[in-house]
């Protein structure tokens, strides 16, 4: 990466010291990339990050994850068809959605808890139908699922992401499916927007803005099922996010060197049974009787 301008020369030197390599994984291969989801997990709990990315402990798919994944994949296919000069009807998109959902449902390590598969399918159909009818028609895609990959100098690892949609008006779009809409405050501090806007800037193609296309699943009593939430980042904030990637990489390297991987804050909602599969075996989990 090339450092953006707002930071001072002294800050540039301090902030962008990065390890040349990331840690080895349990199978002897080396971790070669960081991503927004990887960074998010390390910031929440370095120990959980170690288990997922170095020990390769896979976490189960939940019902909401299945709905979000199936809707996101179908929206991607819808936009990809438009890029190719073709189209998917609502019925065709719905059939594709069900096939995508069922394929994911049959995958390994799926834990729906108390959720019923048919209820989740219906939620996915409702979410997709609303998005295609209310939002998608106004989007003119230029690229779908484009890979971005940024590298600091003298490193063999990269920062990687996959941008859901980039459109003709210069916007970067990310599809979010959840029980609640993405709020403006959350959008304004979200690292995904920062990471993808940083990538566009360093590529020499600054985006006009970032948009979360927020889709609610399940019952909607008020507020609508779809909402477009815009957010922007100035150059100073992008430079600070670039520096934070570097800082996090240094912290990962220090944890590897010392063998000391900090635990999550104990009052985080994610540090609880049902939220973390490592709860019963983690020193930060519930004491065993």
**Straight-line N-to-C gap:** 50 Å
Question: Level of helix content?
Answer: 40-55%
Residue stretches low in confidence (pLDDT < 50, at least 5 long) are 6-11
Instruction: State the CATH architecture of one domain.
Output: Alpha-Beta Complex
Q: How would the global form be characterised?
A: globular
The number of helical elements comes to 9
Order of helices and strands: HEHHHHHEEEHHEEH
Oligomer: single chain
The tally of beta strands, per DSSP, is 6
* CATH class membership of one domain: Alpha Beta
**Into which percentage range does the β-strand content fall?**
15-25%
Average predicted local confidence, pLDDT: 91
Major sheet characteristics: 6 strands, mixed
Structural class assignment: alpha/beta
Rg from C-alpha positions? 20 Å
CATH fold name of one domain, please? Answer: Lambda Exonuclease, Chain A
Characterization of this structure:
With 289 residues, the chain is α/β, with parallel strands linked by helices. The protein has a domain at 63-241: Alpha-Beta Complex (Lambda Exonuclease, Chain A). Helices cover 42% and strands 15% of the residues. The chain has helices at residues 9-15, 36-44, 46-54, 63-83, 90-105, 117-134, 184-189, 191-202, 235-258, and strands at 33-34, 141-150, 158-167, 171-178, 209-216, 226-231. Strands 1, 2, 3, 4, 5 and 6 form a six-stranded mixed sheet that branches. A hairpin with a 3-residue loop joins β3 and β4. α4 crosses α5 (90-105) and α8 packs across α9 (235-258). The longest helix has 24 residues, at 235-258. The radius of gyration is 20 Å and the shape is globular.
